[in-house]
Amino acid sequence: MTVTPVESVQAPPLVPPAYGILSAAHVVEGGRVGFGFEYQPEFCGAAKLGVAACATPVGKQADDGRDLVEGEPFSVYTLKSCQTIGFPDAQEFSQRSLLAGEGRAVEQWLADKLTTEATNIGAWTGVDKALAMLEHYIACNYGGVGTIHMDRAHASLLFSKGDALHSDGSRLTTALGNTVSAGCYDDTDPLGPGTMWATGTVTLQRGPVITPGGAVVDTTTNIQYALAERLYAGAWECFAVAVGVTP
Q1: How many structural domains is the chain composed of?
Q2: Residue 238: which of 204, 199, 197 has the closest Cα?
Q3: In a domain, 57, yes or no
Q4: Distance of CA 176 to the CA centre of its chain
Q5: Who is most buried in 69, 76, 92, 99, counting CB within 10 A?
């Protein structure tokens, strides 16, 4: 019996998921990523009520104007192992995997920071109520468009409720105009009790994708290993708050 070898064909292109943190953040290519960054935001907080001319004067409170944002360096990577025979492009394979999946790793970095640093402002039954609480907080405590962070399950439930979320094809926003990052922030039990967060603008600086040293071959097993990684530095400005949510 003649056995015909299986034909090797080109895999279909992998399209990264839409509406994650890389679509919601202010992403800056290049810079001294490994050392982090800092900047002075335009404004943190809300304007205050004064009095009209000729009215009884009241004391005015000054903002200190020193809400420095400090970007923290971190890295994301993929490490692939492949049989060397018939697989000449391990480095390219590893790079493509990184480009397709790096947003998930950045969301993991953000979720770890938000879990420890965000201020809890309550808990709600219903994703729509949790979203409403975050939108209200942003409007009363921030001078710009906020960023709301939620897992994909919560985003899907909000879409099912009508006009809570809007898509313009590349970015996801709330009906009130705040930016939404829908990712894998809280994926232990996405339809159980979880958390949604709100922050000021998220800034991400990132360097080029690199493959340090090229592919490495383990001659005892004929397996090659290819590493692709990218340096990042990230921060949010002004505030971070969390609400508990039971769908």
Answers
A1: 1
A2: 199
A3: no
A4: 20
A5: 76
Residue 11 in domain: no
In a domain, 10, yes or no: no
In a domain, 16, yes or no: no
Q: Can you tell me the distance from the alpha carbon of 23 to that of 18, in angstroms, rounded to the nearest whole number?
A: 7
Tokens encoding 170: 């590349």
**Global pTM value:** 0.85
Count CA atoms closer than 13 A to 49's CA, side-chain side. 1
What's the pLDDT tens digit per position in 28-42?
998 778 889 999 888
Q: Residue 71: CB partners within 8 Å, gap ≥ 6?
A: 36, 37, 38, 203, 205, 233, 234, 235
Closest listed residue to residue 141, CA positions, set 220, 88, 198, 215: 198
Rounded CA-CA distance 126/138 in Å is 19
* Identity of residue 21: I
Burial of 170 (0-12, 13-18, 19+ CB in 10 A): exposed
List pLDDT tens digits, range 36-83.
Answer: 999 988 888 777 677 665 655 555 555 555 578 999 999 999 887 765
Q: Are the CB atoms for 71 and 205 separated by under 8 Å?
A: yes
Residue found by looking up tokens 């949604």 in the block: 196
Cβ-based neighbour number of residue 124 at 10 Å: 17
Closest CA relative to residue 115, chosen from 156, 149, 157, 143? 149
Range of the domain at 171: 21-39+72-246
